Automatic annotation (TrEMBL):
This is ABC-2 type transport system ATP-binding protein. Transmembrane segments: none annotated. Its main location: membrane. SMART domains: AAA. One of its GO terms (molecular function) is ATP binding. It is found in: Cell membrane. Belongs to the ABC transporter superfamily. It is a peripheral membrane protein. GO terms for biological process: response to antibiotic. Residues 6-232 form the ABC transporter domain. It comes from Actinophytocola oryzae. One of its GO terms (cellular component) is plasma membrane.
Length: 301
């Protein structure tokens, strides 16, 4: 039977008139990759810091592995690993020396250090000073520091923020490898596409509240949004597109013609009959569409 690793019940935190966290509740199962999504200012980081025991909630309860993280419980600390938005490393130490230092704080043997460097893809940078690593490499080192004591729960606060697309994807491999080791991951991000790929379940937050919570695919399916078929402009006239079976709406700009449909198979078959498939793109709904439907506004990171 799957056990609950994290239980959050009606947590609230205000700063003056600002309700940073406004009645948040959810549970995370052991071994689950759980994402908290939302734009900047949604309350993600404050929620995470309360769960980690870094902030005291105004109301509500949190339990990690059956224990309250506030007040600070020193017996709980070795069982959690925390990677913050900004990590302060020790000056002038190499990647290996950084990890040795963090490992020593937990009484972890030196053999674990090389294992972590291998896991996060930094074995070849072990003797490179931290300040000479790239942004993506520093993020991976930060995650290795959070994992060096082999915690049961790993907290990652926007680990791919400010990384270039290639560095983000390299870090995705690291995050998948962490989950494959059976770790529970609680992760915040404002990249909806990333969460759609990585997370078992997601909670979409805005203005301190959870607007929706489920597996990404179920959230998207529940939206019942149309499929968009995008053609190169000139491959079909707007009038001809509107006459196609399954075409619900047609729009056109300077470079493309877009057909919205809820009968994609019929529409694509008709386009194939007309040899109008060159350059065709098919786009289904995404978590960004779910956010738009929930809030009535476009998502902005």
């Amino acid at each position: 039977m799957t056990q609950t690793a994290i239980a959050v019940d009606d947590v609230r935190k205000s700063y003056g008139d600002l309700k940073a966290v406004d009645g948040v509740s959810f549970t995370v199962a052991e071994g689950e990759f759980f994402g908290i999504l939302g734009p900047n200012g949604a309350g993600k980081t404050t929620t995470l810091e309360i769960i980690e025991g870094l902030r005291e909630p105004d109301a509500g309860t949190v339990h990690l592995l059956g224990t309250s993280p506030w007040p600070r419980d020193t017996a709980l600390l070795p069982r959690i690993g925390v990677q913050l938005q900004a990590t302060a490393f020790f000056d002038k130490l190499t990647a290996r020396e950084q990890l040795h230092t963090f490992a020593a704080l937990y009484g972890v043997g030196a053999g674990r250090v090389d294992e972590m460097l291998e896991l996060v893809g930094l074995a070849d940078k072990a003797n490179t000073r931290e300040d000479r690593l790239s942004g993506g490499q520093r993020q991976r080192l930060s995650i290795a520091c959070a994992l060096v004591h082999d915690p049961d729960i790993v907290f990652l606060d926007e680990p791919t923020a400010a990384l270039d697309p290639q560095a983000r994807r390299n870090l995705w491999d690291v995050l998948r490898a962490i989950q494959e080791r059976g770790k529970t991951i609680l992760y915040t991000t404002h990249y909806l596409d990333e969460a759609e790929i990585l997370c078992d379940r997601v909670a979409i937050m805005d203005n301190g509240r959870i607007l929706a919570l489920d597996a990404p695919a179920r959230l998207v399916r529940g939206l019942d949004a149309p499929t968009r078929v995008i053609l190169e402009r000139g491959s079909l006239t707007a009038a001809d597109a509107k006459a196609l079976p399954g075409a619900d709406d047609v729009s056109e700009d300077e470079v493309s013609l877009t057909i919205s449909t809820r009968e994609a198979a019929d529409l694509l078959s008709a386009l194939a009959d007309r040899r109008a498939l060159a350059g065709l793109q098919v786009r289904t709904a995404t978590l960004e569409d779910v956010f738009l439907d929930l809030t009535g506004r476009e998502y902005r990171a």
